[in-house]
Amino acid sequence: MVSGILAEVTRLADIATLAYPIYFIHLVFVFSLFVYLPYSKLAHLFYRSAALCFNKYSGREVQQAAQQEVQLGAGPEASSEAETSQTGTEASEAETEQGETEQESKQE
């Protein structure tokens, strides 16, 4: 930024012998910034913008929104799989109880 301002000031002051080398140095700095940009933290600006555009135009954004609506539409009564999953012993106990009740109903 400083090199650009300095190049502009020397050009407006009509000091061409100094303005051209400063402008060249400014262009080298700008080129170096563009070369370094993909490897810096500033790359996130481009990469994230490209990812958001890709999601929007590929329809992925709509699919994700639909999935979230389905999950939220289940209501507060329904809980997630992690909450409702049973441990191995609980599951085997439940199966045993179901088997016993089925056998009793068949005997009657």
Q: How would you characterize this protein structure?
A:
The chain has 108 residues and is an all-alpha fold. Helix content is 80%, strand content 0%. The protein has six helices and no strands. Helix 1 packs antiparallel against helix 2. The longest helix is centred in the first third of the chain and has 21 residues, at 16-36. The chain is rod-shaped, with a radius of gyration of 34 Å. Mean pLDDT is 74; it is low at 78-88.
Descriptors:
mainly alpha; 108 residues; 80% helix
Task: Give the overall form.
Answer: rod-shaped
Structure classification: mainly alpha
Biggest sheet overview: none
The Rg value, from CA coordinates, equals 34 Å
Number of helices: 6
Strand coverage percent: under 5%
Helix content bin? over 70%
Low-confidence stretches: 78-88
> Whole-Å distance between the termini?
91 Å
Give the topology string: H per helix, E per strand.
HHHHHH
Count all strands and give the number. Answer: 0
Mean pLDDT: 74
Short description:
With 108 residues, the protein is an all-alpha fold. It contains six helices and no strands.
